[in-house]
Amino acid sequence: MASSRNVNLGVLVSGSGSNLQSIIDSIEKGTLHADIRIVISNNPDAYALERARRHKIKSLVIDHLTYPSREDFERALIESLRSHEVELVVMAGFMRVLTPLFLRTFPMKIMNIHPAILPSFQGIHAQERAFDYGVKFSGCTVHFADDGIDTGPIIIQSVVPVCHDDTADTLRERILREEHRIYPQAIQYYAEGRIEISGRKVNIRHGLRPEERALHNPPLESF
Ligand code: GRF
After folding, report:
1. Which fold has domain 113-206?
2. Which of 55, 64, 84, 114 is catalytic?
3. Domain coordinates of the chain in residue numbers?
4. What pLDDT is attached to residue 43?
5. pLDDT of residue 195
6. What is the residue with the minimal CA distance to atom 7 of ligand 1?
7. Chain segment 68-91, per-residue pLDDT in tens
8. How many whole angstroms from 3 Cα to the centroid of ligand 1?
9. CATH topology of 7-107 equal to that of 113-206?
């Protein structure tokens, strides 16, 4: 295993913060070598802020509604992230689209999680749209942010089946459980300096090889 140092994180949130919680838990367990230097919410009522407080992690509200433009809002974010010596920006349920100003400031240093197998179902309500479409598998993706919506280079994906008795809610929960596993893993790859990017392709140095096995849903019976 590659050596690992603690990477300084700035976590951007807007809502419940369950992904923030999975990152905190992984740090506390010692499986993720990172320090959360600052949690920033654009939403003053985000439950994620309470999670940060409970773990004595510094948090801050930067409400986009109080800024005249997206760029002004982002300048405030950048100033805070820089002053907390953030090396990797982690978007965890952060519901704002970033402009080139922010992206240029942290090139390939911004991760996002999306609750679908990208490039399918980019944008909001991905789980419901996948469910309504009738897909047999869905899942989640951690990727670097670029100037599109959910389009940046893919770091890790997890696939879950859609079962015949699922609802959009049960599918969302199944996907969320996987989000909580792959996000800390992606950040740990970063902390270990194992992420190589070439164009759209991300390689994890010394990454485990996946099983070369097809998945079927419903499972094949006699073929
Ligand atoms: C998650 O599905 C995340 O992927 C999406 O928002 C949902 C809630 O995230 N973008 P969290 O509980 O606030 O981390």
Report:
1. Rossmann fold (3.40.50)
2. 114
3. 7-107, 113-206
4. 98
5. 98
6. 93
7. 999 999 999 999 999 999 999 999
8. 30
9. yes
Tell how far the Cα of 18 is from the centroid of ligand 1, in angstroms: 7
Kindly give the residue spans of alpha helices, DSSP state H, lying in the chain: 18-29, 47-54, 70-83, 100-105, 126-133, 168-191
Q: Are 146 and 100 in contact (CB under 8 A)?
A: no
* Residue 5's pLDDT band (cuts 50, 70, 90): confident
Q: Are 194 and 4 in contact (CB under 8 A)?
A: no
Active site residue 55: no
Question: If you measure from the C-alpha of residue 113 to the centroid of ligand 1, how many angstroms do you get, rounded to a whole number?
Answer: 8
Q: Answer whether 17 contacts ligand 1 (Cβ < 6 A).
A: yes
Nearest CA owner, ligand 1 atom 12: 18
Percent of the chain beyond pLDDT 90? 98
- Ligand 1 proximity of 92 Cβ (cutoff 6 Å): yes
Q: Give the pTM.
A: 0.96
Rounded CA-CA distance 210/158 in Å is 12
CATH number for the domain formed by residue range(s) 7-107: 3.40.50.170
What is d(CA 93, CA 81) in angstroms, rounded to the nearest whole number? 17
- Choice among 12-16, 19-23, 147-151 with the minimum mean pLDDT: 147-151
